[in-house]
Amino acid sequence: MPNIKSAIKRVKTTETRNSRNTSQRTAMRTAVKKFEQAAENNADNAKELYVEASKKLDSAVSKGLLHKNNAARNKSRLAKKLAK
Asked: Which PANTHER family match (predicted)?
């Protein structure tokens, strides 16, 4: 545990950011997995789940969790699965 006040503050902020990033990353992955399962089963709500997954990917880019090209690649792959 750090003794310096600024280092203590950095530990606290790192913990809060880490937990926030983890929860957002988990939500994004869950949305993608839900869509992939729906696309495999030819579910009726696949289009809605695709939109939700795209929003989560875009949100992850704006938060700095993903690189924009990574999100674009994932969205492209999801769109291909939707078209099938």
From this structure: 30S RIBOSOMAL PROTEIN S20, SMALL RIBOSOMAL SUBUNIT PROTEIN BS20C
Query: Do residues 53 and 34 touch, judged by C-beta distance below 8 A?
Result: yes
- Write down the domain spans for the chain: 3-81
**Residue type at position 35:** F
Long-range contacts of 78-81 (CB under 8 A, 24+ apart): 78/32, 78/35, 78/36, 78/39, 78/50, 78/53, 78/54, 79/50, 81/35, 81/36, 81/39
> The whole model's pTM is what?
0.85
What dotted CATH number matches 3-81? Answer: 1.20.58.110
- Residue-wise pLDDT for 33-78, tens only, equals 999 999 999 889 999 999 999 999 999 999 999 999 999 999 999 9
